Amino acid sequence: METIKHNSINFIAGAWPLDPARPTILFIHGSGESSLLWEAQVEALAGRINTIALDLPGHGASDGPGRDSVSDYARDVMAFVEDAGTPDPVPCGLSIGGAIAQQLLLDYPQKIKAGILVSTGARLKVMPQIIEAIETDYEQFIAMSRMFAASEKTPPALLDSLMQDTAQCAPRVTAGDFRACDRFDVMARLGEIAVPVLVISAEDDKLTPPKYSDFLVAHIKGAARCNIPDAGHVVPVEKPEAVSEAIRAFMADFDLG
Ligand code: COA
Fold this sequence. Notes:
16% strand; globular; binds coenzyme A
């Protein structure tokens, strides 16, 4: 695995340079997180597929301010795809990352061949207490995240790196992410998506419950579904193999790699 910075965007890649003959899964993290969320999948899926996980602007080691709208982040990701020459991008995002993936599918239908939506929804209203905690007491917000982010069955130590990562994200960037989620609503537009989509949910997800994924599957034509037991919102960290396997099977079923 390699860590690379292209212009202002930092990312990890399963192998570099990318193979122009293979599709590229472009992993996008959740609010206040970084590419670290997807480390296991970037590694496990590299080979038949190019794998890249980005740090969104203002996150991890990427420069720039964060954003407070999903469309702005989608534009940033598309600019990266075009700049870095990413072959056949398949966005795979969690939570706000999944919102960005939906926005890419809607805004760039000619350029995006498929999408993978993990622990997300077509609308992502945020409990006001979350934004308030970020703005007034970031440590309290990290403590709340620990409580809500994973299944009660997940060993707490598995979350340590992820929580450290969020603790290092500037509070104004994390707040902007949650504000962007709160404004996001593409419920009425899902019928426009006409490419293969995989929806991954986790049974114990309290932040984006499986009901949100039911809605995605019911309204995106032909969407495939994988519901993972004994995991919560940060399922790529809680059940890395199950997530990689679901993605591998989807890519193979649709002859994407
Ligand atoms: N897909 C399907 N259904 C959805 C949905 C989605 N993406 N988003 C909301 N809904 C449903 C809700 O389940 C609810 O259904 P109900 O009336 O049958 O219970 C209805 O639409 C209205 O919900 P919502 O728009 O969320 O408004 P609300 O005022 O009822 O609730 C919150 C606001 C913040 C309490 C609620 O959205 C919530 O608990 N969110 C999850 C926690 C959170 O903050 N997550 C962070 C996400 S990044």
